[in-house]
Amino acid sequence: MKNRVILVAILSVAVIGAGGFFYFSNGSAPDVLYRTEKITRGDIQVVVTATGTVSADTTVAVGTQVSGVISKLYVDFNSRVKRGQVIAQIDPTFLQSAVEDAQASLERAKAQTDDSKRIYLREKELLAKGLAAQADYDAAITTYESNVAAQKSAQSALDRAIINLKYATITSPIDGVVLSRAVDVGQTVAASFSTPTLFSIANDLTKMQVQASVDEADIGRVQNGQEVLFTVDAYPEQTFHGTVTQIRLAPVTVQNVITYTVVIDVPNPDLKLMPGMTATATILVTKKENVLKIPTIAFRFQPQADQIETRKDTASAADDSARAERRKQFAQMQGGGAPGQGQGGRPSKLWVMGKNKKLIPIFVRPGIADGTFTEIMFGKVEEGQEVIVGSMSQRPSASATPFSGGGGMRRF
User: Fold this and answer.
1) CA atoms within 13 A on the CB side of 145
2) Cα dist. 392→16, 219, 299, 358 in Å?
3) CATH fold of 48-57+207-288, please?
């Protein structure tokens, strides 16, 4: 019995040892799945998105400076008008009466002036002959001068009355199209502290504007002359083109969010765009064509230490030369890049598979990025080359980089 127990214990230890040896010998070097993407060639563009409202290039609110009843309307919605054309008439009855009253006041003032002038001249003649007192002469000249001033005041009142009578006839200040009409015949308009708006007239609907709201975080990248593409809900499959012409300095704050108004000029020859439409705009900040590019996630990949090639992995002269070349590339990019390449971002690393199934870095200088792809301005890379963008091993560690959608997968 005792011998059987000892035998069972020995067999158990042997099984556990064999299992541990098998586990650690296979687990020490687990297979690694790498997600790769190819370096491609194509276009990259950096854009700023915004929403805005379509409006006419110039819109004039036509009002009235006098009060009265609308007696006639000569235009309606969508009517085309010329500058100076009569578009409405206010009943001139009271205004005409005001002119006649001012005319009568002027005539009365003239009569008083003429009478005081005769008295003044008579007193002057009598004073010269010593037949009148100086006080009578002074009173006469004062009365005459006062009546002259009163006559001028009466003339001014008549001029105002005539002008008000002219204001009863409403004319168009510009050539354009009537967008809105706010009055009807028989309606009374009162021009007291503010001028009531009767019509809104747009000058030319073949030239439109989009007033887009751009977030303060993006406004620094917007400049006059930049190309703009936008769509409206009325024509979702058509893209309209415009140009940034003005960046207004006045901030607009809505619920603690600061935006700036960017004015975009838009040709509208076919009159498809109408005032008030909502536009979803894309402002083209930068565009580069036919450049090397790689998904941006490749720059965020960082392999584990045991996945990186080290000097102990290989000691050949060729590998030493490769490492020296990588150091040279990094030094060149630190110093500003190759001639003619321009200035890009800070030198960054891309990871590729080496000869010993270990990863080696390639230093590149990234350029512009559109959120998905990043331009490669300088570096020892070529189109079609596969770059590691993520990894997942059979026994992932806390520092392993998860991989997300797309790309190819390689087992090394």
Assistant:
1) 6
2) 29, 40, 17, 14
3) Elongation Factor Tu (Ef-tu); domain 3 (2.40.30)
Q: What number does CATH give the domain 71-90+168-203? A: 2.40.50.100
Per-residue pLDDT band at 333 (split at 50, 70, 90): low
Cβ atoms 143, 135 nearer than 8 A: no
CATH topology of domain 92-167: Helix Hairpins (1.10.287)
CA–CA gap between residue 403 and residue 50 (Å, rounded): 32
48-57+207-288 and 71-90+168-203 have identical folds: no
Domain boundaries, the chain: 31-45+290-411, 48-57+207-288, 71-90+168-203, 92-167
Q: Would you put residue 407 in left (φ > 0), alpha (ψ -120 to 50) or beta? A: left
Q: How many CB atoms lie within 10 A of CB 312?
A: 6
- Alpha-carbon distance 246 to 202, whole Å? 20
Largest CA distance in the chain: 172
Tokens read off for 45: 């563009």
- Stated as kind and residue range, the H or E segment containing 324 is helix 317-334
Query: Pick the residue with more confidence: 130 or 16?
Result: 130
Q: Is the dihedral of CA 339, 340, 345, 349 positive or negative?
A: negative
Summarised one tens digit per residue, pLDDT across range 202-222 is 998 999 999 999 999 999 999
The residue written with tokens 């080359």 in the block is: 385
Distance CA 49, CA 28 (A): 50
Cα separation, 251 vs 234, whole angstroms: 29
Q: How many residues does the chain have?
A: 412
Residue for token digits 């993006």? 218
Kindly write down the DSSP assignment for every residue of 237-253, as one continuous string: EEEEEEEEEEEEEEEEE
Using an 8 Å Cβ cutoff, are 250 and 261 in contact?
A: yes
Can you list the alpha helix ranges (DSSP code H) found in 130-242? 134-167
Q: How do 68-73 and 86-90 pair as beta strands?
A: antiparallel
- Kindly give, in sequence order, each residue whose CB lies less than 8 Å from that of residue 98, ignoring residues fewer than 6 positions away: 161, 164, 165
Q: Which two tokens stand for residue 83?
A: 């500058």
Say how far apart CA 51 and CA 230 lie, in whole Å: 9
CB 332 within 8 A of CB 310: no
| Partners of 241 in the β-ladder | 229
> How does residue 251 score in pLDDT terms, banded at 50, 70 and 90?
very high
- How many whole angstroms separate alpha carbon 144 and alpha carbon 150? 10
